[in-house]
Amino acid sequence: MHLQLREEKVFKDPVHNYVHVQDEIIWALINTPEFQRLRRIRQLGTSYLTFHGAEHSRFSHSLGVYEITRRIISQFERADYADWPQEERLVALCAALLHDLGHGPFSHSIEQAFQMHHEDWTCKIVLGNTEVGAVLRRLGEDFPAKVAAVIRKDYEHPIVVSLVSSPLDADRMDYLLRDAYFTGVNYGTIDMDRILRMLRPFQGRIVVKESGMHAVEDYLMSRYQMYWQVYFHPVTRSSEIILRQIFRRAKELHAGGYRFAFLPDPLPGLFNRDLTVEEYLLLDEALVQTAFMQWRKEPDGLLSDLCTRFLDRKLYKYVEVEVLDLEMIDDIRSAFEAAGLHPEYDLEIDFPTDLPYDVFRPDGEFQDKQILLLDRQEHLREISEVSDIVRSISGLHRGKYHLYYPDNKLASVIHRLPANIAELFEQGQ
Amino acid sequence: MHLQLREEKVFKDPVHNYVHVQDEIIWALINTPEFQRLRRIRQLGTSYLTFHGAEHSRFSHSLGVYEITRRIISQFERADYADWPQEERLVALCAALLHDLGHGPFSHSIEQAFQMHHEDWTCKIVLGNTEVGAVLRRLGEDFPAKVAAVIRKDYEHPIVVSLVSSPLDADRMDYLLRDAYFTGVNYGTIDMDRILRMLRPFQGRIVVKESGMHAVEDYLMSRYQMYWQVYFHPVTRSSEIILRQIFRRAKELHAGGYRFAFLPDPLPGLFNRDLTVEEYLLLDEALVQTAFMQWRKEPDGLLSDLCTRFLDRKLYKYVEVEVLDLEMIDDIRSAFEAAGLHPEYDLEIDFPTDLPYDVFRPDGEFQDKQILLLDRQEHLREISEVSDIVRSISGLHRGKYHLYYPDNKLASVIHRLPANIAELFEQGQ
Amino acid sequence: MHLQLREEKVFKDPVHNYVHVQDEIIWALINTPEFQRLRRIRQLGTSYLTFHGAEHSRFSHSLGVYEITRRIISQFERADYADWPQEERLVALCAALLHDLGHGPFSHSIEQAFQMHHEDWTCKIVLGNTEVGAVLRRLGEDFPAKVAAVIRKDYEHPIVVSLVSSPLDADRMDYLLRDAYFTGVNYGTIDMDRILRMLRPFQGRIVVKESGMHAVEDYLMSRYQMYWQVYFHPVTRSSEIILRQIFRRAKELHAGGYRFAFLPDPLPGLFNRDLTVEEYLLLDEALVQTAFMQWRKEPDGLLSDLCTRFLDRKLYKYVEVEVLDLEMIDDIRSAFEAAGLHPEYDLEIDFPTDLPYDVFRPDGEFQDKQILLLDRQEHLREISEVSDIVRSISGLHRGKYHLYYPDNKLASVIHRLPANIAELFEQGQ
Amino acid sequence: MHLQLREEKVFKDPVHNYVHVQDEIIWALINTPEFQRLRRIRQLGTSYLTFHGAEHSRFSHSLGVYEITRRIISQFERADYADWPQEERLVALCAALLHDLGHGPFSHSIEQAFQMHHEDWTCKIVLGNTEVGAVLRRLGEDFPAKVAAVIRKDYEHPIVVSLVSSPLDADRMDYLLRDAYFTGVNYGTIDMDRILRMLRPFQGRIVVKESGMHAVEDYLMSRYQMYWQVYFHPVTRSSEIILRQIFRRAKELHAGGYRFAFLPDPLPGLFNRDLTVEEYLLLDEALVQTAFMQWRKEPDGLLSDLCTRFLDRKLYKYVEVEVLDLEMIDDIRSAFEAAGLHPEYDLEIDFPTDLPYDVFRPDGEFQDKQILLLDRQEHLREISEVSDIVRSISGLHRGKYHLYYPDNKLASVIHRLPANIAELFEQGQ
């Protein structure tokens, strides 16, 4: 059964000023241990090592996504649009609030190291024997399944999915604004009020009134800039590499029967890829950092060195390379090995667009990646047909290879490297 | 030996836009493990449980204090004021940067629980066999002692102390602006540029040009508001109480010979109040939170319950009381005990102005608590002589008693409490 | 008959982001010539001569007051408060929009010089044979009279008056924010969202929830600072004095039969204090400035010099005096006259609190000057009973005497003044 | 002879916080009647009819350009760059301050109507027998000529020209920020601090360090957006058309011997294109608006109607057309004439890119239109070679034809128009 709160509650939020909670169910979800755990997971992983202000948590981002969704829906309700299914309000709000619930500590790095997907965990938590699950079931036995379906993007009402997950969704709007605010980088400031005013529910999806085109252009440019200025920042990438190497090394050691002096639950389960939901929820960034602190004392020099690098921010340096083929990589790795360096731990190759790159690409195969403009005659057009600027950035695939390496180690052996390779690394930063 | 960096380095900062580093020594200090550790200590302790944006670290605050000090000094140098001892620049900058180096996790609470003072630890780290110490010694064997003297406020040049520690210092200006920014509370926005323009070195201290009086009034009002809106917020106080109770309980248990399943170094040393500098530097908020996570599984119900409360943000409720005397407190504690509650853990009494309250009070005994205005005839006047508004807020000592208690426990026994006491708690929030 | 617009219209506003228009009547009022005329009247009169950004018009302020009123009412409607008379919505919105309609060019100065009151003109325009009147009459023959009554503060529903005109009304909130924005002075930034959330219609007036007390304190402090930093700025006062002297001189000349080379309608009517509404509406700041440009060529040296001073910003200098009595004034005027200066035009005495000073004073005789707090038990208390800070600023009456004079003229005769008087003016600025 | 002010003066500025004046010559220039006149010329002409906040004057913009130039130079001096000619400081500052001195009322429209160029007037004022000229001559008889040469872009030190007039100059940076601030449109917020940090004097021009590329991309995108959102806004264009028609009509009437009831100096000289510098300086927007007010009473219906339209903001409506050729235009004009409309006054055709369009185009013939990046090896590259995003926007030439017309007149004869033409205008806005 659903109830309004007797009196609206608010959270003071630096980005949206206030986050407004009007429904008892939302209030109850926020107060579950599973949602409170998001306070212990940073929104931007290791970016705080590049931008010291970026300490903000997934808790605050989740509230923000909820708030934007709430504002959109309340506007749809006020205008009484026929294409908005009013009975879907709470499904949408709950999905918006909970969509990041399954993120683990330093999410992207840990996912790569242990082949996990945070969406899976989100759905397990929503559907499982958790407090979140219990709260959701108050709205009906099938309510958790509805919320999970929105998160998995296969809900029967695609318009609800479109609100929470599309190229112009509440998630992306919140993170652009929030990450810009906390890093201090001002490329992410978008005219959210205007974009919200221009959104329309139309034939099962959220589209944009044509007169909002410039605001959308500006939003896409902001995203583009934030990707290159913040999300793909080479110093952040360097710290992610260290992190991944720590996880990799610890997993290797554990698999080889190594006995850690410090390995509290649920870390063994994580290494064995055998975690219950309950155990998964014990994972947070405090635990990971504490493990790193303790592992500095482990006899394995590689592990200990990597942990020290991460904690003391002694990151790998890098060189940028425009072109790189497999043969060159092999040559470098061989030369490294011959010089006494580790061919893998001492050389990481990174190409930013390898990442799940979600700068808007209209030629994607999935129609749900498109932003559609609605003109006065109620015709829809994909934005890059109309906007020169969007068309021109859609084809762009920037990115250079970055070779990351421990500069102190390299320095001591650089005279042993072939001249062309030594030269390459001599301009490192 | 002191060197300029070949090229200035900058940190992107949301509050000051950029933090500029021009000196090699500053760059080297920032890159020490001891300074990097401040990334793992929050600036506002548990305030993030009230204001979810307040996740910012002492690392970012320390950079901010350094930057403000740098701007003040560079302005003094540009104007070439006779009363500014130019040779003290680096002492001042280092002291500004390092003044919070000795803060522990959840600083105020842990200091109370274990009778420590962060200034002592700061001095020990500065003077000790640490990387910070080593970097400082590059400027002379006695340089660490100078920096420590500024931090202890007994440096031979009081004007340097005045820059870093006075009612209008770089420390307070940064934290007002920074805490306002990250909490989202806009009471802390002061016209720092104007205040900086109005500062003058004068006869061994920093004073303010008379025409800056309104900017100072505004700054004092902002501080006043921030104290009551943020620093003394009852929800934050509630979380500090839980935290202190956890430390108290764990210490009691440890003293009684209890064997914790999870008690990695340096926690035993903390409990025994026997920590080396090296051990102290291992303390951070990640470790404390991880310990709480693990202690949830301890058989001691009180400890386990308190840890759960902290992590899941199930804080104590409170009632506000205007008047409270010792007899009433005794009555309530007795009634609590008779009803089966714990007379201490289940009732905490808090009076915000008990705290080290540094809203400006000109009648303080220490002259260094005063803000002095410099008029055109080079006469100094204490600001409350000139400003009605400062005079009127100087005498104010607001504050009410707050009684904090676990509402679920109380609810189950409230029928056993005397009517007047039951009634008191019935309006709790 | 009242109609909603088919589609909401918006104005981009730097202060409120967007001003939303939903009612046809509001749209029609904005498009009347009488309302468009407000574009040619500055909000802050001559303040642009002190703060060059302060060029904003009463047009933008009027839209802002309307928008704040709209937000308050829409919140009252959403919460469905019993004490808000929903049928008064349009009366309130129209009164908010039109409340400054009768302002003349450089309003305060022209009012003083010609004994007019802008409220009278506002009512005449609203009630008269104007386009505004015609639009209002679409809602009923008595509708203009209702709007005029709200503006005159004698409307039958005092709660409507309270919205538009009270110590915490939409007018004051808009001008604080707007004047702070355009001057660039950051003392005027208040947490309007929070104040709006705290307003309640209660027993015929607007009161504030007790938990909004700090936000109101901050608002009153901001007003206090804006008065002293902006509204009473001595340079602005100096320019107002020049302006008033120009009007006075021109009126004198006209009364004496002087023939101006340039005196287009409706200036003769203004001088004769005999203006129809239609003529009054021809007055704007463009006309006044153009007259001054042309009057530079008039043979009357005094008038011509004053016009030049105003246009070229050659303002009077001033000295500040703490104490001043009538005898001293007489002495100075006599000394001026004896030295060949004009005893009135060359000396103006100004005491800022002579002005209609609306910093909040709870001891005022009028109950409608009070801000009332509503506690949980629905008791009302006047804010200064509860807030130390409000109580302490309520009694303050700051202000010093300022003597304004033309420094070039004075300099040439200063040797002829008695020593004590000469000395007084020697510290002028 | 050049002197520093004894104490720095500041202007409070909403965009740059403070404008700092350290040189007596700058202070003296600001206080000339010629510079003060810029207070009576709006920065954005008629844009205030679209964006009501855009009332800011060329006075404030000129101070802003000066301030940015001052900051750049002071940074060059601090870094002691060999390629910056330090003795050019004052020439550069004066040119920055004075570069817009010759703007007339509603500059672009009046220039078109009377074939004038504001740069010519700027040079005449600088070189002439004016107070500005007198102040400049204090620095040497040839000093005014130097300043004029910078403004005419043929100064012997092209680096000085580059500071004040290039695709990334102080002028453009100030107007983007200032116009964004006062309109409230947030597309113009650029990271000026970062751009300034990246500027380098290099081989006779100002270039950008390569690592500043993203900041420059963002700046060019902001300009692009501001052009389409603000500068080319169709409502603003409509008001400019009305303005131009008023000037055209008045000129026609005057040429035909028509006797205006209101035509004070220097308007006759303007119509005859025969103005001295002294007369030109009497032109301001107050005079133009006053003339329009008075001309409403002129018997010429066309003039009177146009003046009313401008003052009461009854602008022309428009329709957008993607393709338009001369034949179609002829057809429409003929149809208009046949239906009793005026073929010219009642139909204006506008194509925004007809305007001097200064969105960055690297393929321009003039090398001084290029932005050059300086890499670590001190090689220069034109930015669009390096930046995909700049390359992709460089080729863009957006723009549609807009047909402007008086909708009330058209409505009354639309049945007399051929069907295809009538249909075209039926979707007008």
In words, what does this structure look like?
4 copies of one chain form a homotetramer. Chain A is α+β, with helices and mostly antiparallel strands and 429 residues long. Chain A has helices spanning 24-30, 33-36, 58-79, 89-98, 107-114, 118-127, 131-137, 143-152, 158-164, 170-183, 192-198, 213-231, 234-255, 267-271, 277-280, 285-295, 301-312, 326-338, 383-386, 388-394, 407-413, 419-426; strands spanning 4-13, 17-23, 199-202, 205-209, 317-321, 348-350, 372-374, 380-382, 401-405. Chain A has a domain at 4-232 and 360-394: Hypothetical protein af1432. Helices cover 51% and strands 10% of the residues of chain A. A 4-stranded mixed sheet of chain A has the order 3-4-7-8. Chain A has a 3-stranded antiparallel sheet with strand order 5-9-6, sandwiched between helices. Chain A binds chain B through residues 11-15, 17, 31, 33, 36-37, 39-40, 48-49, 51-53, 55-57, 59-60, 63, 181-185, 262, 264, 282, 284-287, 289-290, 293-294, 311-313, and chain B through 11-15, 17, 31, 33, 36-37, 39-40, 48-49, 51-53, 55-57, 59-60, 63, 181-185, 262, 264, 282, 284-287, 289-290, 293-294, 311-313. Chains A, B, C, D: It comes from Fontibacillus phaseoli. Chains A, B, C, D: Residues 58-176 form the HD domain.
